[in-house]
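step=encode ok
step=design start
structure_in=
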């Protein structure tokens, strides 16, 4: 893994590497008293940081003005990347090394029309960015330089990428077409290549798509449909569709966002029109069975799960007046059931598009699951 830290002043860089590793090993021994996260607001507003303590209490923090929209954090919690706040004119991504509460900006901005999809690869600090051109970048967290390892010419943006590392395949939604598509990705070389395969599945996932930590199960949402794609050893999806049930799918008429707990055991889905929050058992074969359905949350807009899988936060927004939105907290119990903590609600001044938690800082050692979205 040291090849990503190569170049000049090798001994100095190696010393820094070892010091950080020693510090990380020390700090990981203590149990965290809080989780760090941020709210990605709609209408190109800056992100806002927040903390969630182990009792479920939320404290809103400062705004982050430099990086907006579809921000992503690497699985070790040490790099954050997202659109430049002036992306309408600059068409670039900005990225930073995270040092506690400080952000060290890379002088090298990356070209991107819009960050429509990003996935972290098994090789530490490497990303696949979905744009009109799909690019693979190797990021050096010490020098803050980026190296382009691959570029695949593409006619449409790549949405909701899910990587299956053991098969060297990348799955995604392609532009405005809602079928499941596949390219090859070789982690040894860092190269994305064709041919692009289109699978004639019932996939219409225009709302969201996410995968388990190994990518072998892909959950796609579309209106009243929940689709589970099981990727076989040949890379071919077999799809189970939960659709057209009485009163919608499991009592949901507009399934909108989905997240899977870090242990891959439970699936959490929010539904817009029914104003509900739902949890399901997710079996290794891809079967889902409902556990909890909680209602009365206005328009559930965004959700995130803490890296240890113990808490869920959800924002639900209003059409006018104050607050514009509410940030709510739920306990995820051992059996996957949800407990709403109404006394933890926090009013917000803006509508939220996405929520992310920072994983524990573990660099330079890779986290267990590289393909999870945080």
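sequence_out=
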């Amino acid at each position: 893994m040291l090849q990503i830290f190569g170049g000049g002043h090798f001994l100095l860089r190696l010393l820094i590497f070892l010091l950080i590793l020693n510090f990380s090993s020390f700090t990981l021994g203590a149990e965290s008293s809080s989780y760090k996260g941020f709210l990605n607001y709609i209408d190109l507003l800056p992100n806002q940081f927040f903390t969630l303590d182990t009792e479920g209490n939320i404290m809103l923090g400062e705004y982050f003005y430099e990086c907006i929209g579809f921000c992503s954090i690497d699985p070790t919690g040490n790099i954050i990347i997202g659109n430049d706040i002036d992306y309408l004119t600059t068409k670039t991504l900005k990225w930073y090394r995270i040092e506690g509460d400080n952000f060290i900006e890379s002088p090298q901005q990356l070209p991107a029309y819009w960050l429509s999809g990003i996935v972290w690869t098994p090789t530490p600090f490497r990303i696949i960015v979905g744009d009109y051109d799909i690019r693979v970048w190797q990021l050096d967290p010490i020098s803050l330089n980026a190296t382009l390892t691959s570029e695949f010419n593409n006619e449409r943006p790549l949405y909701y990428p899910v990587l299956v590392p053991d098969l060297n395949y990348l799955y995604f939604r392609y532009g405005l077409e809602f079928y499941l598509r596949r390219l090859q990705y070789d982690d040894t070389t860092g190269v994305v290549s064709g041919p692009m395969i289109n699978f004639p599945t019932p996939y219409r996932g225009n709302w969201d798509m996410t995968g388990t930590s190994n990518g072998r199960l892909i959950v796609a949402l579309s209106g009243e449909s929940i689709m589970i794609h099981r990727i076989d050893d040949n890379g071919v999806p077999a799809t189970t569709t939960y659709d057209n049930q009485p009163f919608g799918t499991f009592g949901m008429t507009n399934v909108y966002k989905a997240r899977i707990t870090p242990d891959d055991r439970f699936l959490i889905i929010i539904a817009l029109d029914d104003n509900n929050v739902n949890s399901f058992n997710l079996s290794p074969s891809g079967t889902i069975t409902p556990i909890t359905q909680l209602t009365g949350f206005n328009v559930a807009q965004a959700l995130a799960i803490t890296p240890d899988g113990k808490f869920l936060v959800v924002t639900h927004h209003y059409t006018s007046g104050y607050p514009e939105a509410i940030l709510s907290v739920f306990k995820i119990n051992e059996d996957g059931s949800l407990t709403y903590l109404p006394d933890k609600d926090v009013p917000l001044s803006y509508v939220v598009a996405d929520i992310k938690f920072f994983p524990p800082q573990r660099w330079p050692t890779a986290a267990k699951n590289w393909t999870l979205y945080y």
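step=design ok
step=annotate ok -> The radius of gyration is 20 Å.
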